[in-house]
Amino acid sequence: MSSKSPDSQSVASLPRNFSQSSKDYPSTDTGTGERAVSHELPLVNDTVTDAVNDTNGEPTIPEPDLIFTHGRGSKLSNEAIVAFTEGWARTQTTLNFEDTGDLNRRAGIFRALMLAYPSTTSLGGRSMGARAAVRGSMYSPPRKLIMFTYPLIRGLDERFEELLELKSDVDVLLELGDSDAHCHEIHLKVVRQRMRARTWWVRMVNGDHALWYDPDEKRTALCNIAGQIAARWNVSRDPELTELTDANQPTWTNWMAPAAEPARQQTTFNNNISNQLLSVAGGNFTFNL
User: Fold this and answer.
1) How many Å apart are CA 79 and CA 82, to the nearest integer?
2) What b-and-e string marks burial along 148-179, b requiring 16 or more CB atoms within 10 Å of the CB?
3) What sign does the CA torsion over 259, 130, 66, 90 have?
């Protein structure tokens, strides 16, 4: 399965029968004296011609399939997030919110938005926003998490405890660059094996934590495809096929099963006890690794 960008002005896309539109919604009070701004890219089916109006004569806002937020040092205008969101919005709806608070504050905003949109099934974010989504999902209805990069380590600080707390009925999609200094591939593999939640991994070749690619058109195309893949995963996924590679160009592999662990050669140790002062002197024992 592949899709290619024919020129720099177009973005690679999966087959679709939908069109998208965007709308900014007024900022809302978060209850702490600050305001959170939301931006939504709702999906509009081509066959729909009339919007359903509410009692005030305003078009109703569609329930989002995904609630999503940005990272610590970026905003919703981040090019990677914009491209990801546009790719997602080809077939799914998303509500993105912007806030510069800490993890607990953003987790609280996730929970508040879930009360406003109770049919939402997925939470997600980029980098720190993904961590906030994990916290916001605790003891909450959504059972799907979409992580568009995740800061698993920062310096000597490891950040996987919350991932290990996720229950077995939670599905997690990790879209990560294989050159991400904050989420090494070997470290990620160990954490995935320890998690109770089911995980899927999209490996973005040569992608760093910011998912910078040169030229900018390439970054837009790859992040747009990542959004499309995430939207399809949100609808249907195979628990046996859990890894996919975005091959550093607008093409991608099919979902595949994880590679089998290589066979390990057994090592045998023979130990002889020769100290005559010990009661077991002259004995020996053997163990294998």
Assistant:
1) 5
2) bbbbbbeeeeebbeebeebeeebbbbbbbbbe
3) negative
Complete DSSP assignment for 231-267: HHHHH---TT--EEEE-SSSBBPPPBPPPPPPPPPP-
pLDDT (tens digit per residue) in 249-286: 777 778 898 877 666 666 666 666 666 666 655 566 56
Q: pLDDT digits over 42-85, tens only?
A: 333 332 233 344 456 566 778 899 999 999 888 999 999 999 99
What integer is the mean pLDDT of 159-172?
93
Residues facing 278 on adjacent strands: none
Which candidate, 227, 171, 233, places its Cα nearest to that of 196? 171
Ordered by where they begin, the domains of the chain are: 18-264 (3.40.50.1820)
* Nearest in space to 132 (alpha carbons), one of 123, 141, 140: 123
pTM (two decimals): 0.71
Torsions phi, psi of 257, nearest 5? Answer: -75, 150
E-state strands within 16-156? 18-20, 23-29, 35-41, 43-45, 66-69, 94-98, 122-125, 144-148, 153-154
